[in-house]
Amino acid sequence: MSSILDINNIRDKFQNRKLSTVGRHNFFSVLIPIVEVDGELCLLYEVRSNRISSQPGEVCFPGGAIEKGETSKQAAIRETVEEIGVSEHDIIIIAEGDKLVSQANFTMFTYVGELSTRAYRNININEDEVQEVFTVPIRWFIENEPEIHIMDLKQYNRDGFPFEKANIPRDYKWMSSNAEVAIYNYKGKAIWGLTGRITYNFIQILLGNKE
Known about the structure:
Blueprint: H1 7-15, E1 26-37, E2 40-48, E3 59-60, E4 63-65, H2 72-84, E5 91-96, E6 100-102, E7 106-115, H3 117-121, E8 130-137, H4 138-143, E9 147-153, H5 163-166, E10 177-186, E11 189-191, H6 193-206
Parallel strand pairs: 1-7
Antiparallel strand pairs: 1-2, 1-4, 2-3, 2-8, 5-7, 6-7, 9-10, 10-11
């Protein structure tokens, strides 16, 4: 115990570690793929397979959980390769995008990347994860604002919470928050939720409305 409480040990533990987050937290990374289709720059999206349990049939960008030992950039590229069957050499990362921090205990990293037209024409989707891919001209997003809705996020008590141990009353007012939900509809495809927010943020940066 004495060695743990030594100030030199404390310095070593805190000065020589990779920073993380407090509490349970997961990390994901997605690629925002730009591809030229018929002479026009487009964003590429996936429709999640109905074979998966998490959000089947919803629209998303290629991506997934960051695995141990890899960077967020490596994860975005790896997941794209696994999901749509392109080579990592077909992906040129333009820049890291803004992070999205969710109230659901995860952070999503984003990367803007260029996918070669040749690779797009030869996409071979992983049907266990992806139902289909489609593209939307970036111009369409510029010309069509999404619907923006506000979703309230509230905390509720779980049965058995020990209010007396926390020294708080049973009618304690837990902190609540809200989040913007952006919804685009393109040819019957709903681009919304986290994907809608990432898309909207991308367009705002492109238009110069966000530094």
